């Protein structure tokens, strides 16, 4: 099998609206930290100098949001109430694992004119891919936005889906829709501009709001989709980290090709 990493990294050196704080304790600092923790919590006393080279294990402390880097949005991210099931949207730790391992379908939206792709653009992308989505497929949207990852432009210059386009994919039985952009919706500035000029609330983040009516997940901030050499005929694994009560979880998304 051939594995292609389609994840973006959690990188404290990259530009983020919510900055990442990454503090690294060296192996020597980790030894002192462990000695203090063992003494305080378990009553075990030892001198870090007795360890080989005075070192034990490094330790990373990271402060970030669950929407940093490649991540899976759970239904509870979209709102506090759902219009399906018992009315309570599920958190990321409650989602079925089988949703996040299945056939991939890559749809190319790089030629889309403007910040919003609708049904017509998706239909053309499906024609280019040579097939329609099937139940259980994980749809990947290549908008070209990952070229700007790590810069402010990544958060303002990308293509999102409108509501009907999302429902089209869900009508085909898709449960997981991924994008290389910051959001499955259009950029914030575009959304607000269209709302202020029209007064139409349906333009307010329709891709996310659709998740209040129908249960599905988004994978946002994918990367390296141009390394996929075919639009289908591969598997995707994108299991989210199990964070109790969270509306999202980081994921290491991978495309898997049988060779």
UniProtKB/TrEMBL annotation:
Pfam families recorded: Cyclase (PF04199)
Organism (species): Microbispora oryzae
Single annotated GO MF: arylformamidase activity
Top-level taxon in the UniProt lineage: Bacteria
Name assigned to this protein: Cyclase family protein
PANTHER family associated with the record: CYCLASE-LIKE PROTEIN 2 (PTHR31118:SF12)
One Gene Ontology term from the biological process aspect of the record: L-tryptophan catabolic process to kynurenine
């Amino acid at each position: 099998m051939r594995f292609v990493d389609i994840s973006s990294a959690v990188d404290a050196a990259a530009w983020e609206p919510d900055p990442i704080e990454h503090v690294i304790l060296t192996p020597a600092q980790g030894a002192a930290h462990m000695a203090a923790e063992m003494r305080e919590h378990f009553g075990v006393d030892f001198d870090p100098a007795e360890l080989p080279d005075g070192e034990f294990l490094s330790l990373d402390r990271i402060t970030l949001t669950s929407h940093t880097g490649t991540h899976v949005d759970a239904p509870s991210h979209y709102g506090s109430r759902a219009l399906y099931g018992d009315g309570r949207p599920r958190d990321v730790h409650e989602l079925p694992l089988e949703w996040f391992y299945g056939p991939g379908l890559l749809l190319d939206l790089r030629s889309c004119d403007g910040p919003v792709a609708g049904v017509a653009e998706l239909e053309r992308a499906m024609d280019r891919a040579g097939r329609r989505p099937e139940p259980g497929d994980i749809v990947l949207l290549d908008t070209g936005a990952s070229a700007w990852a790590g810069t402010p432009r990544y958060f303002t210059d990308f293509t999102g889906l409108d509501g009907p386009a999302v429902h089209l994919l869900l009508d085909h039985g898709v449960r997981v829709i991924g994008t290389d952009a910051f959001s499955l919706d259009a950029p914030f500035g575009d959304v607000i501009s269209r709302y202020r000029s029209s007064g139409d609330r349906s333009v307010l983040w329709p891709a996310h709001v659709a998740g209040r009516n129908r249960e599905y997940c988004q994978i946002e901030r994918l990367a390296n989709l141009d390394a996929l050499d075919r639009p289908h005929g591969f598997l995707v694994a994108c299991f989210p980290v199990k964070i109790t009560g969270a509306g999202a979880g980081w994921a290491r998304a991978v495309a898997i090709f049988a060779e």
